[in-house]
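Box 3.1 A note on notation
Throughout this textbook, protein chains are presented in two layers. The first layer is the amino acid sequence; the second is a token string describing backbone geometry. Keep the layers aligned when reading.
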Amino acid sequence: MYGIAPLTSSSVITTSEHISKMKKILLIILCLMGLTPLQAQQDNDSGTKPRFSIGLSFGLGGTSPLPLPQSIRKICSYQPLYTGGVEGRVEWKFKNSRWGIATAERWERKGMHTEADVKAYHVEMTADDGGYMEGDWTGKVKTRVCNICLTFPLLATYQMSRTLSFEAGPYVSYLISPSFSGEVYDGYIRHHDPTGDKAYVSHAVYNFSNDLVKWNVGVEAGVRYAIAEHYALSARLDWGITNIFPANYKSVRFALYPIYGFMGIHYCF
């Protein structure tokens, strides 16, 4: 998996909009969790039963264009960086039914490091001597991603047996600590377009962490297995469905999506 893009304009979403949207999401989650004690008292009437859990997860994945563009000729290496998170979760099982719903609040860190051979890859970069360059790059590219976010899923659950359950649904993530940067080396750049002047570059860097959008929407699917009365194991796949860059981000000519798998252990109250 691979993702790369250069530094250009800042995100079109303003800070005030970020805060406003995050407050709405947090309010929804807190309202759902705040209803839990009342829900428990009215269990016989409502037909639902809440259960809390906390969990720790570890993951593997990357941020990738789909499909891989022609300008990325070869993925030379992929190195996972620490990916994982902690979560608090509440789940309701409907009475006399295998179905239920669940929501959670997760703190997650997602990271990767890749190296690739590219040809005619549009990039903006800063050379070691401080010179700014923009154009189509042919050579080596390294990319490092390390993003920290808050994620809020809303899941439908299905109890297959006493110990095994499945779940799926959408999620929304808010980026609280962005990091997306890299370097290019051993190649040349044609200024502005594929037919522009050719210049050889031994090494240059780029950093577009500030250009990442704050909100990402995706879907997830997973399975949970109870290994004891209060303990469970889980596995899930998160698949982002929105681009990590703004829609008008001119320097990246394809969308990039976060795709990560997680394994976890949970304590159920």
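DSSP finds three helices and eleven strands in the chain. The longest helix spans residues 15-34.
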